[in-house]
Design brief:
Helices cover 77% and strands 0% of the residues. The protein has 466 residues and is mainly alpha-helical.
Length: 466
């Protein structure tokens, strides 16, 4: 998976970007990425408070506060990357920041749950524009010999956004209001917009390349219905007519998309990228890694809260070693990838992460706090060793005029892998009785010691298999 060496003079430098300091670009990207990842993690812990405020149960319509963001983001990531290649990255980036903080302001002021959900969809659109092109902005600003280092540093801000979200969300919700978890984005976003307008030099491109609206529509339908089905599969039942209908619509949309993209001169998905062996293998590795590893972030809260009895705040703190370890080791692995290549680092990192999964699967009802922490650290080290080199190989294998599309593929692969991971882990865990056992343990109403022990055994065995 090692990408070929590229001389600095051959770097994908956008028009005018020679005058932009690479560290200034990194700082601007860090603002947007931190804001978007913070928002994806800060809302979860405040969801019960939001449900109580609007007088609705925790299951049902309030779930769309999370799902609306995810579905909209997944459906437009690839299109956003393609648009960046066509008209330039700066206008897409600034538009993403503007849309995101506008959605955040509406979320904070939402007088009803319906408006909150709609505003979350608007946030998702802005977040997609930000996340789809942020890697491409870095590969444009930094020379090839520093690509891995830049992507590694970018991973620090992703990890910080993920790790601080639950804690910050709890503090804000407790001391101010749930509305301020959205308002906090507004000043951060304004700083990012001003800095982008003043520092980024890439002009708007006015080429003759035409946009592919039909392909973009089919792509959005396919990804939105797939993500929606995977998100609600466990709740609706995997054999429910509604879920099957969504998956059928998704499959039809993707088949039609393939036929359309073969015939249009400027497709929204450049299929030639997928004929690049390095690009394809890096994308598949990315999806499979998130499919395997995101289950840790999904399953451990159930283990910590239902089985072990930790509070939500304590569980959030116990999960932070994973993103913090990634934040520490990702820049190092990126720098090593620049010096020694990406192939063995990515493979070794994924192997270490798999070892971490095996170690986490050995946790039981009596594991100490230290047992939990050091296993998460091992898994985080593996993820950090894998992600920066793999992302560097993926982006380095794409031509300079297709960096936006490559970046969109990277972001979409992440979301698809995460969605598949949650769906698969949830289905396996529930089918083995783990979900029911966890719910019973969480309530502990009128349970004898023998019943508690049996439920714990069911939960642990389901957790180990998952």
């Amino acid at each position: 998976m090692r990408s070929p060496a590229v001389k600095d003079s051959q770097q994908p430098v956008a028009a005018g970007s020679q005058r932009t300091n690479k560290w200034a670009v990194l700082a601007i990207v860090a603002i947007g990425v931190f804001m978007a990842t913070l928002d994806s993690s800060i809302v979860n812990i405040s969801l019960p408070t939001i449900a109580r405020y609007f007088g609705v149960p925790l299951s049902g319509p309030v779930e769309w506060v999370i799902i609306a963001y995810l579905v909209v983001t997944a459906s437009v990531l690839l299109t956003a990357g393609r648009l960046a290649d066509m008209i330039g990255r700066k206008p897409i980036w600034v538009a993403g920041l503007v849309i995101f903080i506008t959605g955040s302001a509406i979320c904070g002021a939402a007088p009803s749950l319906a408006i909150l959900i709609a505003a979350r969809g608007l946030q998702g659109l802005g977040g997609a524009l930000i996340m789809a092109i942020s890697p491409a902005m870095l590969t444009t600003a930094f020379p090839a010999r520093e690509r891995g280092r830049a992507l590694g540093i970018n991973a620090v801000f992703v990890a910080l956004g993920v790790s601080t979200g639950p804690t910050l969300g709890g503090i804000i919700t407790t001391n101010l209001s749930w509305r301020w978890i959205f308002y906090v984005n507004v000043p951060i976003g304004i700083i990012g917009i001003v800095a982008s307008l003043l520092i980024l030099k890439e002009p708007l491109r006015r080429g003759k390349v035409q946009f592919d609206p039909l392909g973009a529509l089919l792509l959005a339908i396919g990804l939105a219905t797939l993500t929606l089905g995977l998100s609600f599969g466990q709740e609706w039942g995997w054999s429910s007519p509604l879920l099957i209908s969504l998956l059928v619509v998704s499959a039809i949309a993707f088949v039609a998309l393939y036929q359309v993209e073969k015939r249009v001169p400027n497709p929204v998905i450049n299929l030639s990228l997928l004929r690049n062996r390095v690009f394809l293998s890096a994308n598949l590795s990315l999806i499979l890694s998130f499919l395997a590893l995101f289950a840790v972030s999904f399953m451990l809260p159930f283990y910590l809260e239902d089985l072990r009895g930790f509070s939500t705040e304590q569980a959030g703190l116990l999960l932070t070693p994973l993103p913090l370890t990634i934040a520490i080791f990702a820049p190092l692995s990126g720098t090593l990838a620049d010096r020694f290549g990406t192939r063995w680092l990515a493979a070794g990192g994924l192997a270490l992460a798999c070892l971490g999964l095996v170690l986490i699967s050995q946790l039981n009802a009596h594991s100490s706090t230290w047992d939990i922490i050091w296993r998460l650290v091992v898994t985080g080290m593996g993820q950090a060793m894998f992600q920066s080199p793999n992302n560097s190989a993926l982006l380095g294998s794409a031509p300079k005029e297709q960096q936006g599309s490559a970046s969109g593929f990277l972001a979409t692969g992440r979301v698809v892998g995460q969605s598949l991971s949650v769906a698969l882990a949830g289905a396996i865990f529930a089918s083995l009785g783990g979900a029911a056992a966890g719910a019973a343990l969480a309530s502990r109403h009128n349970l004898s010691a023998a019943q508690v022990s049996a439920l714990q055994q069911t939960f642990v065995s389901s957790f180990h298999v998952t």
